Amino acid sequence: MSRLQVVSGKGGTGKTTVAAALALALATEGKRTLLVEVEGRQGIAQLFETEAFPYEERKIAVAPGGGEVYALAIDAERALLDYLQMFYKLGGAGRALKKLGAIDFATTIAPGVRDVLLTGKACEAVRRKDKHGSYAYDHVVMDAPPTGRITRFLNVNDEVAGLAKIGPIHNQAQAVMRVLKSPETAVHLVTLLEEMPVQETADGIRELRAARLPVGNIIVNMVRPTLLDEQAVRSVSGDRRKEVAKALTRAGVSGSAKLVSPLLAEAAEHAERVELEREQRGVLEELGLPTYELPLLVDGLDLGGLYRLARELRRHTTT
């Protein structure tokens, strides 16, 4: 299984939730995962009901079997300071640049530089080894930008490597792209069974493939249960008021006449949704990628719900 798991998706599909659940799922059986946030929203801290993360790797959860989940909210400014120290040994000079506002200027005026720093920090965690020569983390999960920006975000190092022909910037960009375009990486896309998210997912997959970035799985999030079987869905048409009224009466439901219209309207709405979801599943199937479904948590998302989604993902990835 790929060591860098990148999770993207259209806004509102729950990609951060899925990324967190995936980190928990991969950490089972005593493994260590690092959950990386790159958008500065501190969404992961909210999911795990903890305070905002500083710029350091911090343990946030224990998975079934004793595995551990660490988290890191990457700050582009701090990542640039790390970069300056690593390649140019600037140290105090780098901090002086920060005071002068040069670093903020660099990461704001050149968004590509910011993306290089964010992806570079994640890839460094993927490659890092301890003193025994073992990887520091079994898996790194990145809560990445939305689908509309994911290809440019991941591919920016290729552009930088082309601009800087020699030197540490060129070498760093090439090293990052070797990770991102290798079997070590998988880019997963989160969607809902709705037309716009599914279309954006299809577009994202096409762009990722064109950029030769490794596409992983499609994860359909917040799938609502089907309350009517296939025959019942097909039968919700025409005037069925009398049949429904008789059935309610036989069941001993009082005031059944008043219930007929709202029940039929609700059934018709459900049938329409089921049909639309069936169409979107067909579109996803045509994309030719493994597709997993996660249930809608009707009671809302808390830590218990996050662990439930992790169990679902674990079941999908081990069968």
Automatic annotation (TrEMBL):
Pfam families: ArsA_ATPase. One of its GO terms (molecular function) is ATP hydrolysis activity. Residues 5-180 form the ArsA/GET3 Anion-transporting ATPase-like domain. PANTHER family: ARSENICAL PUMP-DRIVING ATPASE ARSENITE-TRANSLOCATING ATPASE, ATPASE RV3679-RELATED. This is ArsA family ATPase.
